[in-house]
Amino acid sequence: MKKILKFLIPKFILRMKNKFIASRTRKEFLNKSQKDIFKTIYSKKMWAGEKEKKYKFYSGLGSHSEELTNKYIIELRNFLQSFPKKPNVVDLGCGDFAIGSKIRDKCDRYYGIDIVDELIEENKKKFKNLSVEFLSLDITNDQLPSADICTVRLVLQHMSNESIHKFIKNINNKYKFLIVTEHFPSPEKFVPNINKPSGSDTRFYDNSAVDLNAPPFNLKIIDMKDLCDCSSDLIEGSLKTKILQLSI
Known about the structure:
The protein has helices at 2-8, 11-29, 34-43, 61-64, 66-81, 117-126, 161-170, and strands at residues 89-92, 110-114, 133-136, 149-153, 177-184, 221-230, 238-246. The protein is of the alpha/beta class. It has a single domain (2-246), classed as Rossmann fold. The radius of gyration is 17 Å and the shape is globular.
């Protein structure tokens, strides 16, 4: 019934509703640390629908919907296979590892990083046969492992501009490639990098998304190319993934 109503209700009404919910949740997370914010999101299952609340940890549609993940997984596996030898990969904000588990075999050393201690411990047990080094770290402040490639999928969208600046500084000179996935609205009236407090919501309902090449971030890169663009009836807009070649 909820899915039927979603298609019957005009998009602008749904947008207004979601923007109201986002403004309310932003107040909930004010003055909380990064660790407390994401621990709360997972403990309250804020990215889970009713069917998904049975899972102990659930990282949302962007990690589980085949329409939003299959193309990404195929193209990322192809990119990883283009290297003369298997690359080392750091997966920042690895979440419940639904994505990482599907590309692990194309990598040499693989680090799964997330800030939620309980989630990391669960991943260690659930994926113990995949030889992944799961670490509980804050990607804005803690020392991160070096590797050839760093992936950050649908993570920065939940962070404030201040936290993203810290993230950029923290990965400086560590990775040759940064693979970033963000949820973009339609191009009309799009403004990159509108600031928001860190939390469960994103910039999407402000007609914005994170673009590391645009102000105020202006990330210095050698080259950039599109990996894939995924869309679905399940979401407005699309999930865009870019490969950024960094100078190290």
